[in-house]
């Protein structure tokens, strides 16, 4: 399922997304994909690692739009 989250600056989009990812992994999801703009891929990977730890962070695939197109 694709969920698009939009909103103004400081409206809680990032916090919401991180919470959803954590909930999905805790409920037993094998893999979660996070699609972000190219310039935010490293920052997103780092924040997921900090939030979840090494073991669970490996179950999250952070993809930029160009990497997603290559994978497809």
Spell out the key features of this protein.
alpha+beta, 72 residues, 14% strand, globular
In words, what does this structure look like?
- With 72 residues, the chain is α+β, with helices and mostly antiparallel strands.
- It is 51% helix and 14% strand.
- It has helices at 13-26, 41-52, 54-57, 65-71, and strands at 32-36, 60-64.
- Strands 1-2 form a two-stranded parallel sheet.
- The longest helix has 14 residues, at 13-26.
- It starts with 12 loop residues before the first helix and ends with a helix.
- 7% of the residues are buried.
- The model has no long low-confidence stretch (mean pLDDT 91).
Brief summary:
This protein is 51% helix and 14% strand. The chain has helices at 13-26, 41-52, 54-57, 65-71; strands at residues 32-36, 60-64.
Radius of gyration: 12 Å
Q: Globular, elongated, flat, extended or rod-shaped: what is the shape?
A: globular
Main beta sheet: strand number and arrangement? 2 strands, parallel
What is the percentage of strand-forming residues? 5-15%
What is the straight-line distance between the termini? 16 Å
Please provide the count of β strands. 2
The helix content is 40-55%
Strand order of the largest sheet: 1-2
SS-based class? alpha+beta
Q: Helical stretch count? A: 4
The sequence of SSEs as H and E is HEHHEH
Low-confidence stretches: none
Query: How confident is the prediction overall: mean pLDDT?
Result: 91
């Amino acid at each position: 399922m694709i969920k698009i989250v939009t909103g103004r600056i400081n409206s809680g989009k990032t916090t919401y997304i991180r919470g959803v990812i954590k909930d999905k992994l805790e409920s037993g999801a094998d893999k979660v994909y996070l699609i972000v703009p190219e310039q935010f891929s490293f920052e997103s990977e780092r924040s997921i690692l900090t939030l979840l730890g090494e073991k669970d962070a490996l179950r999250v695939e952070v993809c930029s739009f160009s990497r997603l197109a290559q994978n497809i």
